[in-house]
Amino acid sequence: MKKFFVAFFALCLLAYILPLGIRPLSIPDEARYGEIAREMLSSGDWVVPRLNGLKYFEKPVLGYWANAVSIKMFGENAFAIRLTSVFSVMFSACLIFLLVRKASPSGTTRFLAPAVFLTSPLVIAIGQISILDSLLSMLLTGVMVCFFFAHRAETGAGKTLFLILTGGVCGLAFLTKGFLAFAVPVLAIVPFLLWEGRVRDLFRIPWIPLITALLVALPWSLMIHFREGDFWRYFFWTEHVARFVSPVAGQHPEPLWYFLPILAAGILPWTVQIPPALSMVVKLEMKNPLVRFAICWFLFPFLFFSICSGKLIPYILPCIPPVAVIVAVGLTHYFEAGKMRAFSIAAWVLAGIIGITGAVLLTSGIFLNEEMRFYGADEGAKQVAASLAAFVWAFLTVWSIRVKDYRKRLLLYCTGIAIFLLVAGVGVPSRVMNIRAPGGLLERNLPRVTPDAIVVSNDNVLRAVCWFLKRDNVKMLEEVGELAYGVKHDDADPGRFLTLPAFQKILRENAGKRPVILVLNASYYRSYRDQLPLPAFVDTDNHFVFAMY
Hints:
The chain is mainly alpha-helical. The chain has helices spanning 2-17, 29-43, 62-74, 78-103, 107-118, 121-127, 133-152, 156-177, 180-195, 201-204, 207-227, 231-245, 247-250, 259-266, 274-285, 289-307, 320-336, 341-367, 380-402, 406-426, 430-434, 439-444, 462-469, 484-489, 500-510, 522-529; strands at residues 50-51, 54-55, 454-457, 475-477, 497-498, 516-521, 537-540, 544-548.
């Protein structure tokens, strides 16, 4: 079984790695985190994050450092800036394995917990794009695992060592996304210690991790303070306090229940198996420290994220590792107790849904019009591959019901979703990718952008313009978005922001002298087109427009 599980994890590694360089770079997130890292390498300034040459204070620096190192090793491409996320997911799976191995005598549970994590669609979707959430989730998982090891340590030296590691990893998490690095562990650890009856530990153990975290975070924190004295005011009040309490400042107001359907869809196919798993956890395992720890780790951070006014799908990624632990422990006990019926019913339902999905994918080109089809007319191979992958997933799910060895049953159940995710990651429909990918348009027009050209864009596509054109001086037409702070507080180029009359003036002053390049979302360009002179050249890909004056 160990060999089979090794083969399964190799399949998961392939499912995560293979699509990295295939999909085009997307906006806004991937272009942003790639460009900030590129500008760090270009300028040699590893202290102050900048985007388009302007101060960018929404996040600390560790994620940019990681991307910059990857770019240095693998070049300025999509693979390089996505590699940090994949590494984070894989290391998270290793941490989950070590955690369960420490606390569970069952070999199956040790392998099943990371398998549940790796085959959760939310994990693989976020793990293949360049955002900071996978890195943060890995570091928070490291904090929780190190703390649990300290909690279970049998010697004073062992406890001290793991508390130091807890604080060190917490400091790295702080350098990734700020004060959330302290909030999530505290929200989980305090109720866990109360549940365990270890009230005194609440006053004895925080000091070592706290001091270590401060020592790790302090060097850069002081450097950014002395370089940019307004950083901590903006970062703390605007990016933390205001986002938590104000729907407007939070930018993404959603209802209290928002994350419930996200979680249910994000851990398929395991959502349908939660009832049998949870029934065994409640019946047999509530006194197990690992289960208590996982429940607190999931429940209280999940409630915290739900209460926050601003919500985005990746925010609950740190809640998936404890869910994987709970599901693995529960299902293992469920099968070891000789039970099967609830698992089989759920698997049949899941297989039926997957089979119908595969049939819809296969026949969509026949029964649906062009606007409603998943794949374009020239993507028949992708369409067939996705359909076949769905059928294979359904077949393996049904097969898992019929085998007697529950370990093979679980392995087949995991493998089906892994195969589907591998094919789906490679075969994403072009219409899904292209709507957020101006890279093809920019790359084919790169020879037209001379060094003396004035480049103008706006918040919607500006990050990609900077990345593909290797520019950190792009002018912004009316929309600045998240660069508002940099425009207001950076005096390097007071003419960076352009109103429409100011842009019209630039066109008049440079007519016949130097090219002016305008790159916009197609809808933005249409709204301006009648107020601008005819461009000398226009190129479009239906979603974005490249115009040269």
